[in-house]
Amino acid sequence: MHFRIMKKMLKHLKSLFEPEETHFPRPVSSGFPLTASPLFLFNQPMASWSPSLAQSPHTLTSTPLEALRILTWNVDFASPNPPLRMHTLLANLESFLGEETPPIVILLQEVHPDALKLLLGYEWVRRNFAVTNIALARNSLTYGTVTLVTKDLFPSVGRCFRVPFKESAYGRDAVFLDLKIVNPQVDGSMTQGGKIRDKVLRIGNTHLESLSGHGTVTRPLQLATIKDVLSLPEVYAGIVGGDMNAIAVEDEDLPAWVGLKDLWEGDGGETWGYQPPCSFPPRRLDKILAMGDVRIVQGTQMELIGVGLKTGPDEGCGIAGEGYVSDHYGLLSTIQVRMKT
């Protein structure tokens, strides 16, 4: 009995000298559930989205790629007319990226079911992209995360899976996909007999817990879980983008604390609080974080997308309405990834 009391006292004393462990407990890599899911491609003859089977790293085709675009955007489930706003958003991206869409991974959060339905019916999406889901994930409540990847990268896509956050009050999660790409200018030493080593670039899409209180306590757990997923042995570099809900002082250094690098350079970068202006100060809620040798391509910088973008009174999709496409700006980065021995 006395031994147990002494053990508890020692544990408490230890916690006083290790406050980080007290406030930000790190989940272990074996402690999170992985929900495997296929990618979906639009089957033109059948006029439907069809699932594809995941490939193992050693059977994937390695795509030579000097740069990859990553776009993250919280598309706002709560404002009126989610389908109309999604239509305007996609038309804007189609115009911006062009018909010959360059290799890009698009990370969307707060996708309303009606907005997802419109996205899946949008011709540009059907022609150019594979998608991670054609319905909300089981853990999602009234909205969810959806990732799009251009078809030219599809032969290099390995596993696609989702990690629900068990401590979330909002059904939040992170969805991941693995890409087997190689930069031919810098990764020549990573070949063995002409074959790229069986490592992948893992890209995550997430929406961390909202608000203060429970959210402030939960976001470190969720981001640490993401970091653990990006640190698994088959991964040589990892990226996660999304709405990090960085509203508290504790959130400012959270990426660095868990071991992730913030790819935004310099001041500014606020993505929320302008559309429309409100009583809260603008915040840099949305971020693109990385681990491994991931960097913004020299001569480029991360861009804010959708600034001032509104729906028109007639978008040609049979839905009337007018307003901001989202209360968030999107973030677009062009990255370069180097494999390390």
Total helical segments: 7
Average pLDDT metric: 85
What's the end-to-end separation, in Å?
A: 52 Å
Instruction: Give the C-alpha Rg.
Output: 21 Å
Shape: globular
Strand order of the largest sheet: 1-9-10-14-15-17-16
Q: Which structural category do the helix and sheet elements fall into?
A: alpha+beta
Helix/strand order, N-terminal first = HHEEEEEHEHHEEEEEEEEHEHEEEEEEE
Q: Point out poorly predicted stretches.
A: 1-30, 192-196
Strand count:
22
Can you give keywords for this protein?
seven-stranded mixed β-sheet; 22 strands; alpha+beta; 341 residues
How would you portray this structure in words?
The protein contains 7 helices and 22 strands. It has helices at 2-17, 19-23, 82-97, 113-121, 123-128, 214-230, 254-258, and strands at 35-36, 39-43, 48-52, 63-64, 68-74, 104-111, 129-131, 144-150, 157-164, 173-179, 181-182, 191-192, 195-196, 200-207, 235-243, 261-262, 286-291, 293-296, 303-305, 310-311, 323-324, 330-338. The strands form 6 sheets. It has a 7-stranded mixed β-sheet with strand order 1-9-10-14-15-17-16, with helices on one face. α3 (82-97) crosses α4. The longest helix has 17 residues, at 214-230. Mean pLDDT is 85; it is low at 1-30 and 192-196. Keywords: DNA damage, DNA repair, Hydrolase, Magnesium, Metal-binding, Nuclease, Nucleus. Its cofactor is Mn(2+); Mg(2+). This is Endonuclease/exonuclease/phosphatase domain-containing protein. It is found in: Nucleus, PML body.
